[in-house]
Amino acid sequence: MNDMVYKIKADFLKALSHPVRLKIIEALKHGERSVGSLVKELGVEQSSLSRHLLALRDAGILQSRQERTTVYYSIRDHDVFQVLRPIAVLLRKKFKESERVLVTLGKK
User: Fold this and answer.
1) Which of 68, 75, 88, 93 is deepest in the core (most CB within 10 A)?
2) Residues 34 and 13 in one domain
């Protein structure tokens, strides 16, 4: 049973582990967007974008709806940002530490 929990967690994190997917999530932070508008904003080929949107939807991060021929995507649960925020904090700390090391090396 515990192995299943780890697999579910790993699959969720794997869905977040691509730069384009993180860009998509940021682009949808303030509301739903059409696939066409995401293509323009992110500068990604539609076929590639569609694969990433599907992966995020399958992971339960996004939801979609269709209106005539246009598909719209939105964040299913904004709590995903509670996962991403601590990662940003950790990375800022890491980069500050690296910057201190580089400054120290430059003084020698």
Assistant:
1) 75
2) yes
SS3 category, 17: coil
Q: What tokens were used for 83?
A: 């996962």
pTM of the model: 0.82
Angle between helix 19-27 and helix 46-58 axes, rounded to 10 deg = 80
Is residue 24 within 8 A of residue 56, CB to CB? The reply is yes
Q: Are residues 9 and 38 both part of a single domain?
A: yes
Q: Which domain holds residue 68?
A: 2-76
The yes-or-no verdict on residue 65 having pLDDT over 70 is yes
100 in the same domain as 69: no
Take residue 74 and report the two structure tokens written for it: 């939105």
Q: Please indicate, yes or no, whether residues 9 and 50 belong to a single structural domain of this protein.
A: yes
Whole-angstrom distance, CA of residue 6 vs CA of residue 81: 20
**28: number of Cβ within 10 Å:** 22
Number of domains the chain is built from = 2
